[in-house]
Amino acid sequence: PQTGQGSVVKRGNGMSEYILEMKNITKEFPGVKALSNVNLQIRRGEIHSLCGENGAGKSTLMKVLSGVYPYKSYTGDIVINGEVQKFHKISDSEKAGVAIIYQELALVKDITVAENILLGKLINKKGIVNWNAVYMRAKKILEEMEVSIDLNEKVRNIGVGQQQLVEIAKALALDADILILDEPTAALTESEVETLLKIMKKLREKGVTRIMISHKLNEVFEVSDNITVLRDGLSIRTMSAKETNEDEVIKYMVGRELTQRYPEMKREAKETMLEVEHLNLTDPSGHQVVKDVSFSVRAGEIVGLAGLMGAGRTETISSVFGAVKGKVTGTIKIEGKEVQIHSPLDAICQGMAFLSEDRKRYGLIQGQSISKNISISSMDQVNTHGVINLSQEYDITRSYAKELGVKANSVDVNVETLSGGNQQKVLLARCLMTKPKILFLDEPTRGIDVGAKYEIYVLMNELAKQGTAIVMLSSEMPEVIGMSDRVLVMREGKIGGELARAELTQEGIMQIASGGVG
Q: Angle, to 10 degrees, between the axis of helix 450-465 and the axis of helix 420-433?
């Protein structure tokens, strides 16, 4: 039988032991075999996690399942409820009960939260939308998720974490039998992560099967029934979560024992590099987002900036970097000299670099090569009398891409073809090419696997040893504690407290972040 352009081939009575089987899936791109005879079996109602390093093939496999890569662009079979599926487009997979939440947000920024949640499923009668019914349905979904977001607010005006929750609500509105979540907690605070994991567990009662791609192994083990590890496009092993542990999963992911998560810290803080005094930010609506913030960072030091979502961490660093709309007041000094920063260009000229938490919105230059994305902030290094030396640009950017382990055949490859983690490495390479004195890293390892995380931690450590002053914003407590010389904890736009390395604990950070005594 046909469903639009998609079709299914019936096999058996549709009562297979597995709701989903992917058999011998092979997917090739020009010059790259992304998947090689991958097999996956998932039972109805289970939470099944896919783990693997960036480029292992996890997202590619799920794009095959969801119809992003259509039938005949791959070989092998997708079997749902005992029936072979032939998805020619995403809507075919949705009709078969498959919904996917991508790592990169896919929301329409200039319409409301409610409209995004019901996008494509607006409740109407004879072509006239029943907006009251739309908002009531969206409200019910958010209530089931136990989250509070203004349904009338445009998505553009809410934070990245809330946008991720809207994506989840949007998928739940499809009433899918199989829900795929690609790094669903990457942009969420701990409390939001807890809410999401509760939602995932509750979906078991409704018979919804969940497939989760995540690099956060603590979350994988908290909710998963089974775990499948992919490496280099191969399905390595499927294990019961109860019968394995993080170290074993990591061993299968990276193909070797990973004895430590964070590098040994052998660095020494030197002279004060950055001083920020009485920083304030009032946004265009008149709301004061950053309130009298003062801090300093020394050369050779990594300072962690922690806090709950909405605490003002990103806004603080963006204000220093000249990358906000609104009124900014306060004093910024670099190496003891007061500087005026009104734009990111000013900041770059003063020796600053900034890795944004939202690589798609504020980082990547869509449609351009890896090379162009790396060099864009350092054009003075690759031009002569205003003419770009393409050969020089290629050589320099290739060396940075190689240093950071970007997986691509060439730096001429379009950056959009890379995995999320490799895109993050490209943006980090852009920062490093400017040779910064001060480096702001906002969620530097978001969407990056454990092996690549360690490589970035080593790089951060080396940069600090060479005298770079680093400010790291992270929602991952172990990362903050494992990499910081000291931690500033923000709450409601202010610095709520400071903890030295010897004092760092998750409980101590959360106490200050939530209003306790620091």
A: 10
E strand or H helix at 452: helix 450-465
Distance CA 456, CA 208 (A): 36
Q: Where are the beta strands (DSSP E) in 285-427?
A: 288-298, 302-306, 327-334, 337-339, 352-355, 383-384, 387-388
Cα separation, 125 vs 204, whole angstroms: 33
369 DSSP 8-state letter:
B
Are the C-beta atoms of residues 444 and 355 closer than 8 Å to each other? Answer: yes
The answer to whether the CB of 188 falls within 8 A of the CB of 209 is: no
Task: Give CA separation, 130 vs 78, 110, 120, 122, in Å.
Answer: 37, 20, 14, 8
Say how far apart CA 511 and CA 518 lie, in whole Å: 7
Mutual angle of helices 160-172 and 190-203, in 10-degree steps: 10
Q: Which of 181, 104, 116, 137 is nearest to 363 (CA)?
A: 104
Task: Report DSSP letters for 67-131, one per residue.
Answer: TSS-TTSSEEEEEETTEEEE-SSHHHHHHTTEEEE-SS----TTSBHHHHHTTT---EETTEE-H
Asked if 187 and 164 count as a contact pair (C-beta separation under 8 A), the reply is: yes
For residue 306, the 8-state DSSP code is E
Query: Of all residues in the chain, what percent are helix, strand and coil, respectively (each to 5)?
Result: 35, 30, 35
Question: In whole angstroms, what is the distance from residue 452 CA to residue 449 CA?
Answer: 5
Question: Which residue in the block uniquely carries the two structure tokens 């604990």?
Answer: 505
Distances (CA, A) of 223 to 49, 93, 101, 327: 9, 25, 17, 44
Q: Is 397 exposed, middle or buried (0-12, 13-18, 19+ CB in 10 A)?
A: buried
Residues 292-327 pLDDT 10s: 999 999 999 999 999 876 789 999 999 999 999 899
Contact 226, 46 (CB under 8 A): yes
* Phi, then psi, of 200 in degrees rounded to 5: -60, -40
Q: How far apart are CA 206 and CA 209, in angstroms?
A: 9
Residues 6+ apart with CB under 8 A from 152: 112, 113, 114
CA–CA separation, 47 and 239 (whole Å): 12
Q: The pTM is what?
A: 0.61
- pLDDT of amino acid 201: 82
d(C-alpha 54, C-alpha 57), whole Å: 8
Give CA separation, 439 vs 29, 307, 356, in Å: 35, 19, 11
- Alpha-carbon separation of residue 220 from 4, 243, 267, 284, 444 (angstroms): 36, 13, 33, 40, 20
C-alpha distance from residue 446 to each of 233, 250, 359, 484, 485 (Å): 21, 17, 10, 17, 21
Residue ranges of the chain with pLDDT lower than 50? Answer: 1-14, 518
